Amino acid sequence: MKHLLLICLLLILSQHEVRACQCDVPKKALEFIMAPDVFLAKAVSKNYTEDKQQYTIRFEVIRHFKKEPHKKYYEFTLASEGEYTGAFDSCDWNVEVGEVWVIYTYFREEALRFGYNCSNSRPIGDITGHLEEDRLTAGFENFDLSDFILSAPLDGRFEPSQPEMDIDSLLSTYYQKNYGESYAENIAYVVADIDTTGTVLGITYWDPQDKSPQLNLDLLYGLNRYHPIEEKEPRTEFGRDVIRELKKIETWDPVCIEGTSIPVRYRNFMQFHKKKDSIIAHYRIR
């Protein structure tokens, strides 16, 4: 009988789409910057469409965390629960009347939206307690993004910065050079700081065993305050050759916060691997 029940359950699940839900939640400070509004609100009504495939949730705002004037009520249309749609998804989430949420909004297709997965939006149980967003609200009066330097994946997703000069032509001089037989002699780890315009601020060696190289974490924002990277001597001849050539490059691609045109200072961690007749560059490896 147990085997029969298990088989029936498997047959039922096989008729529905089941997907894994994996994504990175952005740093609160970065999502706070990007969000048109961030607020604490209580869900006061929930109305399903006739076919039960969607519902509209209405929130009454308790307080706003951003200083601009905002509305007292917000409504969002969300996909219904799996029991109505028939799509059982590990990313499935919903809002119930009476719940209190911290909501980070965003625009998509000219509509204001919010999400739970991959966001700092979340339901909370105690509205009287201290929220990190209260600290961000106060701190953002003096916040200047140019005081910080970001990197992937420590601070979220960014397109890796690449040099505007052809790096292959620079390094081709060393394609035939013999640095030794060991792996360690043919690998180089480099970190480059790039400012908001793509100008190089500094390039040096970094140790892959160092889990937090040259970081200066600001506990309020969860971001690293910028300070010039300390010059370190490469451990190998290959590393010295790579860094010597990279220092000839004055500009790299500017980096922006994902999904925005907001440029940031960026700390780019790279690896260069000497092969028999080539040098392979990996521009984002942390």
Low-confidence stretches: 1-20
What's the total count of β strands?
14
Distance between the amino and carboxyl termini: 51 Å
Number of helices: 6
| Proportion of residues in extended strands | 25-35%
Globular, elongated, flat, extended or rod-shaped: what is the shape? elongated
Structural class: alpha+beta
Query: Level of helix content?
Result: 10-25%
Average the pLDDT over all residues and give the rounded result. 84
Can you give a write-up of this model?
The chain is an alpha+beta fold and 286 residues long. The chain has two domains: 19-131, OB fold (Dihydrolipoamide Acetyltransferase, E2P) (Beta Barrel); 145-282, no CATH class. It is 16% helix and 30% strand. Strands 7, 8, 9, 10, 11, 12, 13 and 14 form an eight-stranded mixed sheet that branches. The longest helix is centred in the first third of the chain and has 13 residues, at 2-14. 23% of the residues are buried. The model is unreliable at 1-20 (pLDDT under 50).
Brief write-up:
The protein is an alpha+beta fold and 286 residues long. The chain folds into two domains: 19-131, OB fold (Dihydrolipoamide Acetyltransferase, E2P); 145-282, no CATH class. It has helices at 2-14, 28-34, 82-85, 132-139, 167-171, 237-246, and strands at residues 38-48, 54-64, 73-79, 100-108, 111-114, 122-124, 148-150, 187-194, 200-205, 217-218, 223-225, 255-256, 263-274, 279-282.
